[in-house]
Amino acid sequence: MKNYLLSLFAILLAISANVQAAEPVSIRSLLNEMIDRESVARFPAYEFRLKQHSSYNRASKTPEDPEGWFNNHDFNSNDKDKNFIRTEENNGEQEWVLMDHEGPGALVRTWMPFRNANRPSTDTRIRVYLDGATEPTLEGNMLGLFDGSGLIPYPFAHQSLRSAVSFFPIPYAKSCKVTVTDRPFFFQFTFREYAAETPVETFTMSGFNDAASQIDEVGNLLRHPAVSVKTEPQTLSATLEPKAERSIELPSGNAAVRSLSIKLGSYDDPSVTRSVILKMEFDGQETVWCPVGDFFGTGIGLHPFQGWYRTVSEGGTMSCRWVMPYQTSGKISLVNLNDEPVAVIMKVQTGDWTWDDRSLYFNAAWRGQYPVPTRPFSDWNYVTLQGRGVYVGDTLTIMNPVEKWWGEGDEKIFVDGEDFPSIFGTGTEDYYAYSWGGISTDFYEHPFHAQTRSHLYDKLNRKTSGEKNTQGYSTETRTRALDTMPFGSSLQLDMEVWSWTDCEMGYGVGTYWYADAATRSNRSPAPQEALNVPPLPNMDAASGGPKSFENSFEFEDLAVVSKPKGVELNSQSLTNYRGRWSKNGHVLVKGTQLGDVIEWAIPAQSPGAEKLVLHATKSYDFATLRFTVNGIAIEPAIDLFSEKPTPTGAIELGEFSSIDGAYTLQVEVVGKNRESSGFRFGIDCVSVTPGS
């Protein structure tokens, strides 16, 4: 009887699975899948392969021909360029065919850039023909249809940095053709190719309208990601000594990690996010070895952003919402590779999971290399995988030593032993969903991609000029929902190293995928390379020197009238920290104690009253100061404490008349915040302008 019941239960499970699998692919099913974090932890029920039609240069045929393989002309600038499928005439009008796929599928990502870096407008029409129809199912402005300003709302479609990007699913049962009414520029259309027997409900406008409430709900969830887990988190709060490792053992049995957060005690040294390593073991096998910055998408240093799978907060908490299942056991560890202790707080929440034959283990790995020569042009391998799995994202941090643009390189992705990549891109920034990289050195974020840092800029220090300097660190991150990449036997992801300058760059990439236990990667722990942090270049060399604030005097150049014995004044570069300082640095005043007074002389610029505005720095061991100008005290005192170095912004001292052609600025240490560990301070510059 017992065996009979077990057999009956197995039959019912099989019937249930078949009923679920019989539900056709549709707008609604794909929208559900987009926010179902569990779904990426299983191999797809309806198996597909991700494909892409793009404007890559058709001269790229084989690595044996480097001139063609690394040809950078991935767009159409005149009638001689043929980086599209074909042209055809419909109703007396010429159309350029950009995508043409036969068989069941779903368009899951579109990317098209501005034709001019500073002008988002276009008159070109884009048309989407489904299932062989002679009339388009979708038609609109080439950019407006897919930039969030038209039919498809944000966040499914949006305007990133100088690009129109859409992730809204457009399923089709038989075919999909995309055309434009003028010669195309750059483009990428990424789609799922399903097996021939897969049931698919083709996108229709009536179906789109019927899904309006679901579209609103999914869009709201994407903008406000959260995890609902009833279990209390397991917490590790400790100081990691140099070379030490601390762990959390996960509950035994069938379960899954649902959320993970890590906060380091200090990010003053930006390289701490590269030297603290996250490790994970599931069912006795290590599947994750990755620096925390590359795992969470912040790169080198703390650079806040919000995504669907990961969030980095301004307060320093880095969190992720990947679902990570296991069958019997799990362990999550932090390793400190550095020579200094690091305070850490790690929290892990787990939940139920039912393991089946589609369940996969979460994996993350890291590769770093410095230096990387930019000549000759080359393909830099992110990762190569052997076995079955699903690729779900990556974070690239590069160090560019020169001002000129570094990211012309195309992604080339080979799946299941392909001779030619089924995904051949048009530029590194295009892969990360923006364009015109030489000028797009600003922060941006979206649920599925972000540029968390570029040049001097991040979420807390936005770009306000039109400069094209791309020196320093840039961090690009992309996670995948409907555009995940399943593979049955292998996956190889390469990115071209293609800079406009012959130089030596630094590359580091974190990669994330789900896979069977038997799947293998070509990545292994690399502690020495993790400590080989690419040095920042002289950020001012290419631009003729650091920029001063307008009408300002640097404290490095001002005469010190008096100071206590033992107090030291040292110039300090602050290029590694977020925020803007005049000439990228300040004077660090050390050895100060409560009651110390330092005086500077500031030259007057005119005989009349003038306005004085001071810029200083806040940090974790800085004092509270009172400023006095020509004997007049400025109230209140200024508390310069902050958990990490940051500029104060403008401190308006007031309007004053000079004495003997100068102003005497007196700075007195009057106390400190109870959380501050010292009485030091940093002082940047003072501007002198005509009074009112």
TrEMBL record:
Q: Where is this region: Disordered?
A: 55-75
The signal sequence is: 1-21
The record's section on Gene3D superfamilies has:
2.60.120.1390
Give the top-rank taxon of the lineage listed in the UniProt record for this protein: Bacteria
Q: Which InterPro entries match?
A: DUF2961
Which keywords does UniProt give here?
A: Signal
Name recorded for this polypeptide: DUF2961 domain-containing protein
